[in-house]
Design brief:
elongated; Chorismate Mutase Domain, subunit A; mainly alpha
Amino acid sequence: MDGRFKIEKFRKKIDRIDRQLVFLLLARRELAQKIGIIKQKDSIPVKDSDRETAIIHRIQQLAVPPLSSSTIERIWREIFLLCREVQQH
């Protein structure tokens, strides 16, 4: 099998995973938006550092090499930022 063909097969799989990730991020964003409405109504602060820390610790338990705990934390911090932004609007 030609190397370029193998690469293309892998890239198609990556494209499918990317679509799934985007769908999951959109679903998470939608839930965060609903939570934001409740927080705004009940005057609850948008940022919940304890919850974010607990989530990071929980997700880090799933990390296996070569995916490091620090990589997980960086990714989730960006996800939290996205969700906080939607809750503030």
